[in-house]
């Protein structure tokens, strides 16, 4: 007899699957990409970032902006981790 798989989740987490979750993953990654898109290129614009403590940062460096963002969505967080590791390797 085949048993169903056992999935352990932390308290307060949800297990979502299917087409809706795929679309949600894509949207979260697009939001992160759009937040740094205007800083790229010769006409790159500065971003003003205010954190939860009220500290302000003005930067047009994508790595700095990604470091300051508080990302809780797993797919977008993975994308940011990839960008950070690429920046660490290449410089």
From TrEMBL:
Organism, as annotated: Caenorhabditis japonica
Record protein name field: T-complex protein 1 subunit eta
Alphabetized GO MF terms: ATP binding; ATP hydrolysis activity; ATP-dependent protein folding chaperone; unfolded protein binding
Protein origin, superkingdom: Eukaryota
Entry similarity comment: Belongs to the TCP-1 chaperonin family.
Keywords: ATP-binding, Chaperone, Nucleotide-binding
């Amino acid at each position: 007899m085949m048993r169903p798989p056992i999935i352990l989740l932390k308290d307060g987490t949800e297990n979502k699957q299917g087409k809706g979750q795929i679309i949600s993953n894509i949207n979260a990654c697009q939001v992160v990409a759009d937040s740094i898109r205007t800083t790229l290129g010769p006409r790159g614009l500065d971003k003003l970032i205010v954190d939860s403590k009220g500290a302000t940062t003005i930067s047009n460096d994508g790595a700095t902006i990604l470091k300051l963002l508080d990302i809780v969505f797993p797919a977008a967080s993975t994308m940011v981790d990839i960008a950070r590791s690429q920046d660490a390797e290449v410089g």
